[in-house]
Design a protein that fits this description.
Blueprint: H1 3-56, E1 68-72, E2 75-80, E3 89-96, E4 100-106, E5 108-109, E6 114-115, E7 122-127, H2 132-135, E8 140-143, E9 149-150, E10 161-168, E11 179-186
Length: about 190
């Protein structure tokens, strides 16, 4: 093999390796975004499941307060025994900073029972990159027994059904697009004829 043939072989091998390396790098860059989006969608799905499970178990507070305490488009607050002990907790799910869905838990304390809502006993970030606020879509909607939507806080004792919707997108100007997760729950422990 002559020196010229060796140089041509090495040059072709180097060019081929550069093309392969750049292709692999581009694939990983694109897949990193896809994996990040899938991760956030899975977080939102897990958060939605926790929310619906807690809403279904909504019950009267240990101090006798009605189960649903806050009914806003981007915030819901209610009493539920989420940890299955003998005490009912106050739970708030809220869209904060326009894109972060959080869960805060407040335990009942003292005698007589009271709920200190100044500092949560537990706080969780359920999903980031939630686009409900920017899309103008409510995170929570409330309905009565007839299926009529309730929007006024004065109707809080009439709520019997809650629908939640989370729109997730880590980069609104890039594909894949937005993922919408919807679920709903009836308030099982709120009876009509007590």
């Amino acid at each position: 093999m002559s020196l010229v043939e060796l140089m041509v072989t090495v040059s072709l091998f180097t060019i081929l390796m550069l093309v392969i390396t750049n292709s692999i790098s581009a694939m990983y860059t694109y897949n990193a975004y896809t994996f990040a989006q899938a991760y956030q969608v899975q977080n939102a799905r897990n958060g939605m499941q926790a929310l619906i499970r807690d809403v279904r178990e909504m019950t009267f507070a240990d101090d006798g307060t009605f189960p649903l305490a806050v009914m806003e488009p981007y915030k819901i607050g209610f009493y539920s025994d989420i940890d299955r002990d003998d005490s009912v907790e106050y739970v708030e799910y809220e869209l904060i900073a326009d894109t972060i869905l959080t869960k805060q838990v407040y335990n009942a304390t003292g005698t007589p029972i009271s709920y200190n809502l100044s500092i949560p006993d537990e706080s969780y970030t359920l999903s980031e990159y939630v686009q409900n606020f920017t899309q103008g879509s409510s995170t929570f909607k409330y309905y009565d027994t007839n299926g009529s939507e309730l929007t006024s806080a004065t109707d809080i004792t009439d709520v019997r059904y809650v629908r939640a919707e989370i729109i997730v997108n880590i980069d609104p100007v890039r594909d894949p697009g937005e993922f919408m997760l919807r679920s709903s729950a009836a308030l099982r422990n709120v009876k009509e004829n007590i």
